């Protein structure tokens, strides 16, 4: 297959931006990469967005907020228990996952059963949202309180993902994968003017299972003009005078280890050498992201405790609840119980296929 020419790429991006406003907003914010400029624009946008009543909740987590402002990330200790994380893992492993780089391949239920070329194995969003704990965690007062305070307005839950990072993959089949091609390279995610991600380990992660690595204090730091604005290496940061060794952290922990992170700070996943890693990621932004479903995936009752604005990308408000396979008791926001119920045919879930 012929590669895309620069002119073809230009027209493709123009067409994307015209047909889907989310792409227009996405490309627009990528024109400003200086942290100080992005902060100013974010401040203006936050004043125009719906405001939330999260000040009182945020006061309970002043320590987390202070740590986030200082380092670019904060750990949510004593929040998700190991048992809760393993419940989510058990649910996901009952559903097939797929290789996003090789969609023609057959899905699989266990990373051990994946084809050798598979490096990342993702779950479909319909299967992810069939697990009620995930939306409850995304809407938990602790996470939303911190994020809303830092945003200065109500955020949007714009992306929900869960995936395996596999070890033992075929390196030759993945030789063009940038993650493997540049193992020392750290990158920034530039998806919106302000973005915060919630990560939760669903498997036991040590140095051999591809831990997430983050360089603290880089989310508000400019890169020298001679370096790439999107990615860098620790050596390049050291040359520019930044103390990398004092700020680099490899995050290891048991299932349930959770943290909020500013992805504009340089980060990467280490390459796993002995064990697979399963992680859940929830992204909060100002605007809906073009990588998410174009329409809500599930329906929810109007009496639900979930804020309709914050959840509008994935949840559509209706008088009836679309149950899918699992019945969610929305009246118990702190409950992590899952009950099996046979839904009515008219209420069956329509799954989003990537």
Automatic annotation (TrEMBL):
Gene3D superfamilies membership: q2cbj1_9rhob like domain
Superkingdom of the source species: Bacteria
Protein name: Phytanoyl-CoA dioxygenase
Organism classification: Bacteria, Bacillati, Cyanobacteriota, Cyanophyceae, Leptolyngbyales
């Amino acid at each position: 297959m012929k590669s895309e020419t620069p002119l073809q790429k230009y027209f493709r991006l123009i067409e994307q931006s015209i047909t889907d406003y989310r792409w227009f907003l996405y490309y627009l914010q990528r024109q400003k990469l200086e942290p100080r400029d992005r902060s100013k624009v974010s401040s203006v946008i936050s004043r125009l967005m719906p405001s939330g009543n999260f000040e009182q909740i945020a006061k309970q987590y002043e320590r987390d907020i202070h740590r986030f402002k200082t380092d670019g990330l904060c750990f949510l200790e004593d929040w998700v228990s190991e048992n809760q994380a393993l419940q989510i893992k058990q649910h996901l492993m009952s559903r097939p996952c797929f290789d996003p780089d090789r969609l023609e391949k057959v899905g699989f239920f266990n990373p051990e059963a994946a084809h050798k070329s598979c490096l990342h194995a993702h779950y479909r969003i319909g299967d992810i949202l069939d697990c009620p704990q995930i939306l409850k965690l995304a809407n938990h007062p602790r996470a939303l309180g911190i994020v809303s305070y830092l945003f200065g307005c109500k955020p949007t839950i714009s992306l929900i993902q869960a995936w395996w990072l596999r070890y033992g993959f075929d390196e030759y089949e993945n030789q063009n994968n940038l993650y493997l091609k540049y193992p020392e390279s750290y990158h920034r995610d530039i998806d919106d003017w302000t973005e915060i991600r919630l990560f939760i380990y669903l498997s036991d992660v040590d140095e051999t299972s591809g831990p997430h690595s983050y360089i603290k204090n880089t989310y508000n730091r400019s890169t020298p003009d001679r370096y790439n604005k999107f990615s860098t290496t620790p050596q390049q940061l050291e040359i520019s005078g930044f103390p990398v060794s004092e700020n680099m952290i490899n995050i290891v922990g048991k299932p349930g280890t959770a943290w909020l992170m500013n992805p504009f700070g340089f980060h990467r996943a280490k390459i796993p050498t002995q064990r697979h890693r399963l992680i859940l990621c929830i992204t909060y932004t100002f605007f809906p992201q073009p990588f998410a479903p174009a329409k809500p995936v599930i329906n929810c009752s109007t009496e639900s405790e979930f804020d309709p604005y914050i959840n509008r990308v994935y949840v559509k408000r209706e008088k009836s609840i679309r149950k899918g396979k699992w019945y969610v008791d929305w009246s118990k926001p702190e409950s992590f119980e899952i009950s099996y119920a046979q839904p009515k045919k008219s209420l069956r879930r329509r799954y989003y296929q990537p």
